[in-house]
Amino acid sequence: MMTWEQLQSVQPVAMKMIQNSLVKDRVAHAYLFEGERGTGKKDAGTLLIKSIFCDHPSKDYIPCDECINCKRITNGNHPDVHMIEPDGLSIKKGQIQELQAEFNKTGVESKKKLYMISHADKMTVNAANSLLKFLEEPHSGTIAILLTEQAHRILPTILSRCQLISFKPLPPSILKENLKQEGVHPHFAPLLASITNNFQEALDLNNEEWFAQARKIVLKLYEGLKKSPLQAMVGLQDGWFDHFKEKPQLERGLELMLLIYKDLLYIQVGKGEQIVYPDYRQMLETDALQTSARRLSEQMTAILEAKRKLNSNMNPQLLMEQLVLELQGGSSFV
């Protein structure tokens, strides 16, 4: 779980809104935290809950994380805090009704009762309608936090009764660490974090055999480029064209190729910790010593131009053959 300080660094706007509502004593009766998976919505929701129940918050209402209330919320056993997750593929009407029955009781230890609904967009129609009645006539001291990755799937009538707080995609450095924590191999996490800022998309790509094979083919072509025009052309015929068949696939291949040259540039300017092919560091460091920043700039420009021409429907085979010549310093890219 991210700390308050960590969330402030990656979600400054969202955390400022949450903190202002606490400091000004204007905590809403219902919030909707929306944003992609992995952006810290649930962590922020938990910290807001802790701030409300904390025995010793700071002057800025940051929870102490040490008192009995904070610890019980961390462990999921605070009697006045209720969490709802999908039961199977959806959140059902019965779950909302059980929540309503629980909230009709007096708070066990305080005048406040709070509930957080994960994947609120997965409520059935009946569940959403039951929640709507709950939001329209909230009990005194009741606070709701709804979490969703797809706000457009929430009933407009529910949206209108919630304070919306948006969570932005994570920067690559944070996304990379989150992917590692999720079990993504350290050799793949930097690459995934550089081609998408969507946590779920990165996980999906990590599980795709096509993507793993694409990475190998791109690196093989790069190594062929260093040897001879013939070797590079053989690399195109032996794997590249069979694997990158559709335009989106070819575009992905060019993107993976571009990142190799970016790695060389990072090494040249002393930012080797930012490379996205760390398992090829030794080879890249050697190559970076044998080329100039100007040449790298020309090669990256050639790849970007290839992507542009791809989108203007240039023949993919001709495009790649011309790109190979340009990357090797042969005829100009036309």
From TrEMBL:
One of its GO terms (biological process) is DNA-templated DNA replication. It catalyses: DNA(n) + a 2'-deoxyribonucleoside 5'-triphosphate = DNA(n+1) + diphosphate. Keywords: DNA replication, DNA-directed DNA polymerase, Nucleotidyltransferase, Transferase. Gene3D superfamilies: P-loop containing nucleotide triphosphate hydrolases. GO terms for cellular component: DNA polymerase III complex. The keyword Transferase applies. One of its GO terms (molecular function) is DNA-directed DNA polymerase activity. It is an enzyme of class 2 (transferase). InterPro entries: DNA_pol_HolB, DNA_pol_III_delta_C, DNA_Rep/Repair_Clamp_Loader, P-loop_NTPase. Residues 250-327 form the DNA polymerase III delta subunit C-terminal domain. Its EC number is 2.7.7.7. This is DNA polymerase III subunit delta'. It comes from Falsibacillus pallidus.
